Amino acid sequence: MTDNGLVLLRHRDIPDLDNIDVYRQHGGFKSIERAITSMKPEEVTELVKASGLRGRGGAGFPTGLKWSFIDNKSWPHYVVANADESEPGTFKDREIMEHNPYQFLEGVAICAYAVKAQDAYIYLRGEFWQQAAALDQHIAAMEAAGMLGDDLFGTDTTLHIRTHLGAGAYICGEETALLESMEGKLGQPRLRPPFPPSFGLYGKPTIVNNVETLTNVPMIVEKGAAWYRSMGTEKSPGPKVFSLSGRVNRPGNYELPLGTTFRELIYEHGGGILEGGQIKAIMAAGASSALIVANDEALDTPMDYESVPSVGGQLGSASVIIIDDTVSIPWLINKTIHFFRHESCGKCTPCREGNFWMAHLTERISSGEGSKEDVNLLFDVASQVRGKCLCALGEFAVEAVLSGIERFSEDFNGMAK
Amino acid sequence: MLAEKYAQEVQAILAKYPPEQRRSAVMPLLYLAQRDKMHVDRGDMAEIAEILGISATEVASIVGFYSLYYDQPKGAYHIQVCTDLPCALRGAEQFLDELCSRLGIRPGETTADGLITVEPVMCLAACDKAPMFQVHSGQGLEYFENQTVENALSLIERLRTDAARRLGVKRRDGHD
């Protein structure tokens, strides 16, 4: 491990880690060289499987297992790094790409080698224009240093990485919408199955992984699966970057082992609630979250993929938004519904129309003009959106609405005429 | 015409994708078309369609779907303030309102000189540094974080000077 144990945010220990020479001085590119020169692609996949690494984009799917699904009967293969980071409350991939870019790029390269892809793309949200330009320079530096290109390390391995900018559409974080967008089409999700490892970019087998997920990989290759499993919990091993935001004193990214409690994150690292306020609710997975009632049981819950559902939430991408007692829940759901109405891609009727109508209702309710019937109707519409859409956006949109009305009913009493 | 003015850039963009998948270049080509005047017009869309072998309607659908492309002229600089939930919990809405009132416009409007548009936008992945905004111009995007209304106003003054100078020299290549 590094001096104080940081694995993903190593730049906080090592100045100028975004300089290729500094990165090499700290062991950089040893993992890609080792993988290419002394491991078979399948062995790399097995190692990642053994590490227990799970996807950090939100779904928590086992990464090595995903890689093993790549269809070897169809060619060429592609790797696409999902750098569309657009969930309100999530800002971890941006820090990694800005300050520890080579570890991320090395992870992309190792993934490409493991699934026998020669071409990898990084799909960045359009707002990450500067980060894309910087990554282009880092990629060029890696090519010049012989870490990307043809005949790598004296073998016949070829790897190329290129960036691709989106243009402002939350839905493109959904992997099949992202692939459609990369193909130059509207960013609308595909019907699944088939899943990307058999039918992905240009209809070819494709592995789509989140930036943070891939940034773990070089360290796993360097230090092994047992080392990786020494952090976190049995089912959720390894470190995680928690993006802490909202009504806390010290918002920011915190790299902590999976299984750290909400209480430790919020009070030890985040410095507690702003202006000495009282915590009211936690949204653990950004705006897509159910509102977890912030009682002692919730605060003492470990933040891992298995435990957060026990208090009525999801870990997702670990974008922890803190709500205190100054915040009214009707105002909050009006905020989240306006986001989802704006970001609905329009493909599925329940999501497109449901969010539109819910926005009317939440606007009225949050302005104090709503009636009890409005609240009931809102709950009813939200319930009908659930489970009826092609992708998760529809589900995400109603999480805060349903949990807010159910768990914070007192916030809706005052205004219901 | 893009193909003449930005021949090298167009070739570099096309080279990123497999030759039979030229359509993937539609988004970067639209950014290129937007570089000088901060919006794309019908001529740009027709030219991009021709380069890629798709219809102009398909190109227009991309412009309509994604929020960073504009088919109408607006300010040379867009000040895009994030007012999504995490930023709103840290005063972003009050920041936007005060900034707009100091500029004498409403959110979404452009200043009388036609140079500065201020608008609320969805999450920009900077939730721990609110209030924040991005400045979007044809030259690209830049983030400004942990802002106060006063330092936003002084930045806007700088941008105005800049824009006047740029437009004064007849927007030659967008690179200055």
Descriptive keywords:
heterodimer, A: 417 residues, alpha/beta, Rossmann fold, Ubiquitin-like (UB roll), de novo design (two linked rop proteins), 3 domains, 5-stranded mixed sheet, 4-stranded parallel sheet, 42% helix, B: 176 residues, alpha+beta, Arc Repressor Mutant, subunit A, Glutaredoxin, 4-stranded mixed sheet, 12% strand, disordered C terminus
Describe what this molecule looks like in 3D.
- The complex is a heterodimer of chains A (417) and B (176).
- Chain A is an alpha/beta fold.
- Chain A has 3 domains: 10-229, Rossmann fold; 239-324, Ubiquitin-like (UB roll); 329-413, de novo design (two linked rop proteins) (Up-down Bundle), CATH 1.20.1440.
- Helices cover 42% and strands 13% of the residues of chain A.
- Chain A contains 17 helices and 9 strands.
- Chain A has helices at 20-25, 30-38, 41-51, 63-68, 92-99, 101-114, 129-144, 175-182, 211-223, 225-229, 262-269, 296-299, 329-343, 349-366, 372-385, 393-407, 410-413, and strands spanning 77-83, 117-124, 160-165, 206-210, 239-246, 252-257, 279-283, 292-293, 319-324.
- In chain A, the strands form 2 sheets. Chain A has a 5-stranded mixed β-sheet with strand order 6-5-9-7-8, sandwiched between helices. In chain A, strands 3-2-1-4 form a 4-stranded parallel β-sheet, with helices on both faces.
- In chain A, strand 5 (239-246) and strand 6 form a beta hairpin.
- In chain A, helix 13 (329-343) packs antiparallel against helix 16.
- The mean pLDDT of chain A is 95.
- The longest helix of chain B is centred in the last third of the chain and has 20 residues, at 149-168.
- Chain B folds into 2 domains: 2-65, Arc Repressor Mutant, subunit A, CATH 1.10.10.1590; 77-168, Glutaredoxin, CATH 3.40.30.
- Chain B has 176 residues and is α+β, with helices and mostly antiparallel strands.
- Chain B has helices at 2-5, 7-14, 26-34, 42-52, 56-65, 85-88, 92-103, 149-168; strands at residues 77-82, 116-121, 133-137, 140-144.
- Chains A and B meet through helix 7, strand 3, strand 5, strand 9 and helix 13 of A and helix 3, helix 5, helix 6 and strand 4 of B.
